[in-house]
């Protein structure tokens, strides 16, 4: 998924890398703990529960970071078979183009189309919320709409 954001990369970066802000934009996030942060590399433990049909996901991921350019993350341990993805930032004349990719394979048996549906269904809200939290919506009306798509308390996190 790609989104145009009217904010500096640093503002978007601060939202994406914050456990505190993750509670606002990650649907079903129950816990987030930074185990290690060395700037260019971080280990994060998260627990996510998206609904009664999907078991709780409990995992540790490693993110390798090039500040304000990209973040690549992958599963280190947990109850997922696989998880990997990236955030890529590109400055363009219209603003900051942010591309988000994620691939997840649950450990429990579930058809791939269901996993894809659940992931795709939440992406537009996640991206809009991040844009609003970073102050990059472009107008106060659009920011209000973007923050309205957040899963948690957006007002308390800014």
* Percent range for β-strand residues: 35-45%
CATH superfamily: START domain
Strand order, largest beta sheet: 1-7-6-5-4-3-2
Q: Which spans have pLDDT < 50 for at least 5 consecutive residues?
A: 154-158
Using only CA atoms, what is the Rg? Answer: 15 Å
How would you explain this protein's 3D organization?
The protein is α+β, with helices and mostly antiparallel strands and 158 residues long. Helix content is 28%, strand content 41%. The chain has four helices and seven strands. It has helices spanning 9-16, 19-25, 112-133, 140-147; strands spanning 2-5, 29-37, 41-48, 57-66, 70-78, 80-92, 95-106. It has a seven-stranded antiparallel sheet with strand order 1-7-6-5-4-3-2. 23% of the residues are buried. Mean pLDDT is 90; it is low at 154-158.
Please describe the topology of this protein:
Blueprint: E1 2-5, H1 9-16, H2 19-25, E2 29-37, E3 41-48, E4 57-66, E5 70-78, E6 80-92, E7 95-106, H3 112-133, H4 140-147
Antiparallel strand pairs: 1-7, 2-3, 3-4, 4-5, 5-6, 6-7
Short synopsis of the structure:
This protein has 158 residues and is of the alpha+beta class.
Task: List the keywords.
alpha+beta, globular, 28% helix, Alpha-D-Glucose-1,6-Bisphosphate, Chain A, domain 4, seven-stranded antiparallel beta sheet, 158 residues, disordered C terminus, 7 strands, 4 helices
